[in-house]
Amino acid sequence: MACAAVMIPGLLRCSVGAICTEAASLRLTLSTLRHLTLTSIMKSKRKTDHMERTASVLRREIVSAAKVCGAASESPSVKSLRLLVADQDFSFKAGQWVDFFIPGVSVVGGFSICSSPRLLEQERVIELAVKYTNHPPALWVHNTCTLDSEVAVRVGGEFFFDPQPADASRNLVLIAGGVGINPLLSILRHAADLLREQANKRNGYEIGTIKLFYSAKNTSELLFKKNILDLVNEFPEKIACSLHVTKQTTQINAELKPYITGRITEKEIRDHISKETLFYICGPPPMTDFFSKQLENNHVPKEHICFEKWW
């Protein structure tokens, strides 16, 4: 997801020392936040406006100060950010996104979190990956954002994987297209954390197998390739992936070659259908529509099909 940002006079409920001191001048009241939200919706006539598209979606109340503590190019068109989050009560479920408020930008952005909840618990850090577009928040991330830039974030979204210890064991099939990998990477990383916890403590939620299908135009646009393959190698009996490219024009790296094929096929997805499997799909609308419809046609219960469209 991606959309926009705002002039932030201040932030609610700071608690990480240095950030709180520096963010003290940013005191965002609830009435100000409501005004910014409405302004964002009124200003944008685009169908892709994040605040308009997600107006009915549940959000957490906490709006936290955050500071950019890392940035990197993940592909020719995608930049990743690490944000140190100030509020100790800020939390999220794997797969959710944040409203992204930027000082001086008049629209509120929406970016999926690609890190695991465990990283936030341990380091107070979340990670985002933002594709370059001409939309103001994405432009700010690519052209203006620097280390120590201050923003504000609020969690929202109903697309997530958050099993409880007593829940029935489930297999996961994750189907990603382009930057739709972001929330699915968060889910994959969370699944890996659950596997580590299970191995170390011999208790907690018992997750089944995880299969990632990830498609992009070419291998340079496959984000987080190393992170994904590291998890496959760490849990070879539990995590598997197939990487799909649709417009590759250059030679494929030898390390990637065993995982690369063409387009994701209906048969590949059908082969993973079972009563114990949950499907999470995120990508361009035609892709999410196609695979969710195929799964329904193959009698997968609707409650086992979760999807989120990016625009």
From TrEMBL:
What Gene Ontology cellular-component terms does the record carry?
Answer: mitochondrion
**PROSITE patterns named in the record:** FAD_FR
Residues in domain FAD-binding FR-type? 50-186
SUPFAM superfamilies cross-referenced by the UniProt entry: Ferredoxin reductase-like, C-terminal NADP-linked domain, Riboflavin synthase domain-like
Q: Which Pfam families match?
A: NAD_binding_1 (PF00175)
Alphabetically sorted, this entry's keywords are: NAD, Oxidoreductase, Signal
Top-rank taxon: Eukaryota
Which residues, if any, are the signal sequence? 1-18
Q: Which InterPro entries match?
A: FAD-bd_FR_type, FNR_nucleotide-bd, Oxidoreductase_NAD-binding, OxRdtase_FAD/NAD-bd, Riboflavin_synthase-like_b-brl
**Record bears the keyword Signal:** yes
The molecular function terms of the Gene Ontology recorded here are:
oxidoreductase activity
| Name of the featured protein | Oxidoreductase NAD-binding domain-containing protein 1
What does UniProt list as this organism's lineage? Eukaryota, Metazoa, Chordata, Craniata, Vertebrata
